[in-house]
TrEMBL record:
Residues 20-201 form the Outer membrane protein beta-barrel domain. InterPro entries: Beta-barrel_OMP_2. This is Porin family protein. It comes from the Bacteria.
Length: 231
């Protein structure tokens, strides 16, 4: 019984908060927040990365298993006008992917677990609508470059020794959307964003006919970020 009373209280409070945000004439929170020339904050969130493979010969696909990772970073924002802001969002993104190569009988040859820690440097343009009470939708997009700390690019070992290699630097474009919520003491912004690598990240094995990398024409990262921003 106590559990259902607690659930009822949470639902009631949530309903009142949503009604306050979307009311036609709410009490405006942080009215001058968007008038600052420079604004700062931080974000927390999670991600899901995978790879897009292009093949020389399309007879067999490489299997790709995704997992959830996490994001954390800082925000620096410069106001251009009422509707446009320029944002720099340096962040740390951790992810892990498992790749399964066809044609092997032994698991130690067929499976590669790829753990990556990216330091991401995106430069983004945020386009917003007019503020509606205490909320404001936006779209965001731009380019980024990422440093992969777990790339193994400089390793002399390759897949024949169990080492999967990727380039240290990756260049991407990012597109997403979200909503700014103006709360009493801060601005809270949930958003979802896709990231798409422009450059081939694969470092080929020393043997050009390698059963792991010989049939790969290009390997590029794709990912989804869900971030929660506090400003």
């Amino acid at each position: 019984m106590k559990k259902w009373i607690l659930v009822g209280i949470v639902i009631l409070c949530t309903g009142q908060w949503i009604n306050a945000q979307f009311n036609e004439r709410p009490v405006l929170n942080k009215e001058n927040e968007d008038k600052k020339f420079l604004n700062y904050g931080y974000f927390l969130g999670f991600n899901q990365y995978d790879f897009k493979f292009d093949y020389i010969d399309n007879d067999r696909d490489i299997l790709n298993t995704k997992t959830l990772g996490f994001n954390v970073g800082l925000i620096g924002e410069m106001r251009l006008n009422e509707f446009l802001d320029l944002r720099l969002e340096p962040g740390l993104h951790y992810t892990a992917r498992t790749i399964g190569f066809p044609g092997f009988d032994e698991e130690r040859d067929a499976i590669r677990e790829v753990k990556s820690t990216y330091i991401n440097f995106p430069l983004l343009l945020k386009a917003s609508t007019r503020r509606i009470g205490n909320w404001k939708p936006f779209i965001i997009g731009g380019g980024s470059m990422s440093l992969n700390l777990g790339s193994n690019e400089s390793s002399l070992d390759d897949n024949s020794a169990g080492t999967f290699r990727m380039t240290k630097w990756v260049y991407n474009y990012e597109l997403g959307f979200g909503i700014d919520f103006y709360l009493e003491y801060f601005k809270f912004s949930p958003s979802i964003r896709g990231v798409f690598a422009l450059t081939d990240e694969l470092v080929r094995d020393n043997d050009p006919n390698s059963p792991w990398t010989g049939n790969i024409d290009a390997m590029r990262t794709r990912g989804i970020f869900v971030n929660f921003t506090f400003e």
